[in-house]
Amino acid sequence: MAIFSGLGRYTDVGLLLMRVGLGAMMIVHGYPKLVGGPEKWAKVGRAMENLNIEAYPTFWGFMAAAAEAFGGLLLMIGLAFRPACLILLFTMVVAAMSHFAKGDDLLRSSHAIELGFVFLGLFFVGPGRYSIDKR
Q1: What is the chain's Cα-based Rg?
Q2: pLDDT single digits (tens) 78-120
Q3: Contacts of 53 (CB under 8 A, 6+ apart)
Q4: pTM of the model
Q5: What's the domain range around 43?
Q6: Is residue 105 part of a domain?
């Protein structure tokens, strides 16, 4: 259609909007976990038991919270973009597995799964022109 023919030139703007929106929401999810302290970190970190990793749940929980909070910031500004996408993808895989291990159905697990696909896609597409990585 002629009405959409010139929209391809706004790809970088679209990527910027996606990065900022998703990054902000990841910070919203991660910050409370990050400031929750060791008790919260241990609770979150127990999700690694689904990968048969039972040691150091406090460490793993802190890493998950940091991945969401700082990974969201990196996503927003487009710095270390692809490593941030991979770390966030791994975090979402563990989150989805945690839902399934608790007996949740696909509907309850879908948010983590959907975000995992978004981070995987962004890993391949890259941050776009309006990012620190491209400067």
Answers
A1: 16
A2: 999 999 999 999 999 999 999 999 999 999 999 999 999 999 9
A3: 60
A4: 0.91
A5: 11-125
A6: yes
